[in-house]
Design brief:
The complex is a heterodimer.
Chain A lengths: L1 H30 L5 H5 L2 H4 L4 H11 L5 H13 L13 H35 L5 H14 L3 H15 L15 H7 L1 H27 L2 H8 L4 H39 L4 H10 L3 H29 L1 H5 L5
Helix pairs in contact in A: 1-5, 1-14, 6-7, 6-10, 6-12, 6-13, 7-10, 8-10, 8-12, 10-12, 11-12, 12-13, 12-14, 13-14
Chain B lengths: L4 E11 L5 E12 L4 E5 L6 H7 L8 E10 L2 E2 L5 H7 L4 E4 L13 H12 L5 H13 L5 H4 L9 H13 L5 E5 L7 H18 L2 E6 L2 H7 L2 E6 L2 E7 H6 L4 H9 L17 E10 L19 E9 L3 E5 L6 H9 L6 E6 L2 E2 L9 H6 E4 L3 H4 L6 H13 L3 H14 L16 H14 L4 E5 L7 H18 L2 E6 L2 H7 L2 E6 L2 E7 H6 L4 H11 L21
Parallel strand pairs in B: 3-8, 3-9, 6-7, 7-8, 13-18, 13-19, 16-17, 17-18
Antiparallel strand pairs in B: 1-2, 1-4, 4-5, 9-10, 11-12, 11-14, 14-15, 19-20
Helix pairs in contact in B: 3-4, 4-6, 6-7, 7-20, 10-17, 14-15, 14-16, 15-16
Classes of the chains: A mainly alpha, B alpha/beta.
Chain lengths: 325, 554
Amino acid sequence: MYAVLALIVRRLLLSGVILVLVSGTVFIGTEILPGDALDATIPADELMYYSDDDLARMRAELGLDKSAAERFVNVFRGLVTFDFGVTLMTQESVIDSIIHPLLNSLIMASVAIVLTPLVSVVLGVWAALKPGGRIDGAVSGATLFAYSMPDFVVGNVFVIVFAIWLGLAPAVLMITESAPWYQILAVSVLPVLALTVSGVAYQFRLLRAGMVEALGSEFIERARLSGVPEWRLVITHALPAALVPMLNGTAQFVAGIISGVVVIEAVFKFPGIGIELIRSISQREVPTVQAITFLAAFAVIASNLLADISILALDPRVRRARNDR
Amino acid sequence: MSAHVKINGLTITYRDDAGEETAAVRDATIELARGETLGIVGESGSGKSTLARSLLAHTRAGARFATGSVHLGDTDVLALEGRDLRRFRGGRAAMVPQNPMSSLTPHMTIGAQLEELVRLQTDLTGRAVHAHALSLMERTGLPDPELLARRYPHEISGGQRQRAVIAAALIGKPELIVLDEPTTALDKTVEARVLQLVADVQKDLGATLVYVSHDLNVIRALCSRIVVMKDGVIIEQGDAERIFNAPGNAYTRSLIHAIPRIDVEGPLPPAAASPIQLEVRNLGFSYHRPSGFPFRKAPATRPTLDDISLSLRKGETLGLVGESGSGKSTVASLIAGAVSGHEGRIILDGEVVSGAARKRSRDMRRRIQMVFQDPLSALNPAHTVEEILVRPLRLHFGLSPAAAREKAATALQEMELGPEFLSRRPRQLSGGQQQRVGFARALAAEPDLLICDEVTSALDVTIQANMLSLFLKVQRERAMTCIFISHDLAVIARVSHRIAVLEKGQLREIGNRDSVLHTPSNAYTRRLLAAAGTHLRGGEDETASLRIPQSLSA
């Protein structure tokens, strides 16, 4: 137990360091974008009505005249305390402006994140029961194909097939950001499916490889020769061993889903955080960009931590390895 | 009386990489009466394990039963299917596989794995399941079953794991027990105790026993009948004592002759009054366990090595013997510089050697060479033998490519390999050939001290015998100073002038070969000797089915 605690504490410390580095990277990223918020928001034909003094005054109001280092310290102090400040142009709280899209995306992504490993496990176990068999061949082939397809292709194919040909869903979602959660959930079906496709493909391959290895191992052979029925061999002896590599893949998938969300939301016009991110980047809405990327990094780190803890729960060797020598 | 186990004209084939069907076992016929003990011996690739697995109607992936039949009593074993097959396996016939570490499910506790089988093979339910599992653990001599049942396989020792596997095999009260090299991965003293357990259990159940091993000593101790296999064919079978005393086949003779024996002659003594070459003074070493928190060093654990002092004269071989965890390989790693951070001093020809190999002069690195247990992982698989040998030659002696190549061929010649091997890669060589290349590489550097760490442990007995003869020849011709490390006292007895016994990081005994072997002064040495000699004496008590000294069965 002590070892597990120590491991978690160490991971948390490491996560803190990573978050500092991420906020630094985000700041540099927004800093090197050409122009600043003022240039980006004032159209060129309006710009001639402002004198240089006016612009300088407006910059000062927005805090854009301070040195980069000074601004970074301010931004950093805000980010680590989850105080994301106010938007540059409308002066409303950043959190208020992104909370609805954020929740919408969270709903969609969580469904995809829960669904993907479940589908992968079912397919992986099914295929591994007879490696090289017909089911294995079909599923392996289909997932290899799906894995090689970029998210935007999958998304567009779904729009064409389900929305345009079959007419089962609207091609472009007409729903407001602040719609209640069940409505969001209802329109999430296609985006979730699109997100799940590549995730399942990748995790299925990891799980199948793990299952095939486990089913060929000596402990399975011994259990089989002791009269353990096949389904028990698969579920209680082989599956937990095969889940470990897949969970590492799941953590990666969660990281990938955040970039996937941006693409898929753009394809379906889903009112989520991805659309919000694209909008705020094009408007040089720096505090919003910083808030979203910081939260994204936070989600990735949290999901990795969660995957590591699940692995600890599944594999006693990792759990007590530190007590060995 | 009809036979209890009957294998009739059995051929097992498998598809090789080229898609050709090859026979792993060809036309095997064996009959055993109930309660008989059969040993199947053979070297790696002889098909002995494949034949043993057929008794439970099992083949590994890619193999199949081509012709023939297997019967246990009236049951046609190969015709069993589904539920009947599952009841048969673990019920009437049980298997104890080779490697106890990898044959227990790593994420299930010992108790859970036993209870699963108790539920499957008996009618017990509820609390009785747990109680029965515990009683079996007690039966197989596992200490504190209640505690051990909650442990995971990696948390108990190798001997305990094998006892747990044997406990699992007993659940269905089998009438046939098949053991596939069950003690190969265990230390000798542990092996003796596990063998005793197997013999007891067999007698209790009155079961027929089939024991597969490459180790003739073990077979002789345990079995009344023997089958000798080579390349998938049974080349000789019959009464054990008859085969040992008068083998009818040349191959069987060579197998028996190759058994390392503790009562062999040792090497010829080195030249008298040669100077001291290596001195180790008060060598100590501890591994630091990671503390779990950054920037904090955990307190040192029990030292891996504690105050070891020894010295070697030029041309002398010191045999370092001990069981796993004794620290013998750590001694090798420290002297070779593979591990740094020791206490005490290592002195070669009067010069203090620094710890890490990186800090040593190039010449010092040349002067101490090491040969490893697993040649395949010690030789770069991407390089040809020529590249493997030429590189150290050019590094140490600055030879031109042509001269280095010539010298590489000479080095191979010394290990009795022809120049045609220069262009091969490690994977294209047999285990014995790989180890010869390992030796050639070490010897090409013309070392003052050669460290051999379990160099024959992975080899078959006949190949091991050749390797040891070759080692003795080269050692003598070069008057080389060697440290020869092995867990096998018989191997140590063959090559050593002096012997050092290590246990738990401490030097229990060091002395001349003959005095250590014949008049050991230490209790642990005596136990090692008893375990190694287990199968050699015997014969005094014909009623005992097993010739294992009582002192070991505790």
